[in-house]
Structure formats: C-alpha cells, structure tokens
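Priority: low. Protein: Secreted protein. Input follows.
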Amino acid sequence: MSTLTTVLIVAAVIVVLLIIAGSLYARRGGHAGGRRALRRRFGPEYERVLARHDGDAKAADRDLHDRVQRYGDLAPQPLPPGVREQYDTAWAAVQERFVDDPRGAVADADQLLGRIAGDRGFPAAGRYEEQLAALSVHHPRHVEGYRRLHRAARSGAETSTEQLREAMVDARELFDDLVADRAVDHGRHRPGAPDRSHGRGRGHMLRPKGSGV
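Result:
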C-alpha cells in the first residue's frame, strides 16, 4: 500500500470520526436545550413528573413532550359572560357549603372544575387523566391544585378538614384562570394578575363551624 493511499485512508477515518463526534455533541445539546425548554414551560409540574419517574429525566422529558404534542395546539374556548357569572356563583355556593359540609363541598368543587374545563374545550370531566394532562400543558402552575382537590374528593376519613380546606384553596387558582379566560401561561409567572375572589376565597371563608380558627 502506497504512502498516499495510507494518508487518504487515515484522513477519511478522521473525517468520519469528526462527523460522529459532531452528531453526538449536537444531539446532547439538543436534549439539554429541550429539557431546559420543558422546565421553563412546566415549572413545578416538571419536578412532579420527574419525581414520578424516580428521577429519570429522559422518561420525564418524553412524558411532557408527548403532552405538548397532543395538547399544545388545543385552543381553549371562551366562556360567554353569563356562563362565567354562573360559575362564579356556583363556586361561591361551594365555599359556603364547606362551612357545614367540608367533604361534600370538596366533591362539588371537583365536579365543578371538571365541568368548566370541559366547557373551555379541554377533554371532558369523565376523561380525568386526559383532562389533567391537557390542563398541565396550558396551566402548569395551577394544575396541581386540581389534582390535589380530585384526590381529596375521593379520600376517606383519614383526610383532615384542614387538608380539605387547603385543597379547596389550591384549586381556586385554576378555577380563576379558567373562568377569567386568562391567556395560556406556558409556565410563566404573571405578576399582578387580577384576583377574582372578591373576598370570597383564599381560605378565610372556608373555616368550618366550630373549627376554632
């Protein structure tokens, strides 16, 4: 084999190795960039999914990427003004019921959130897992409140009245977003967002009778 042939073979091998190395670097960079984008978009929801996958970041990324693929293009439907008022009134009634019947109020609130999400164009309440996944794409900062409320509505006597109250308070954040037709947040914090509680509802009105607090 001539010296020239040997040089050409070595050069070709080096080129192939450089191409492979560049591809691997780009792939790793792409994964890292995609992960950062998912973390920004989902915020605390990313950490919850990561924990559910026992810290497996690749599995968490696949899970959340699949949600975006399935529901990212969903366009939530606006509520007519009269319907928004009806939902506001219904939530106020649920909060009033909590004073005498915390468990019944939590069950009602869970059903109410499922209905309003369905009215906004998310999967219907009867498809809870799908509905939750879609909501997590469009309301990642507040979807955990709905998840917590749903669990509380199906819990037994081991769930305390205070835990039920906290679930109601957390779920109110998502309710406000859905009723107010707020823009998709994509995990971004929105300082100064309007408060639609009108004094009804961050917890001080959800104290059962005889609670002593």
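The two ends are 92 Å apart (CA to CA). The chain has a mean pLDDT of 81.
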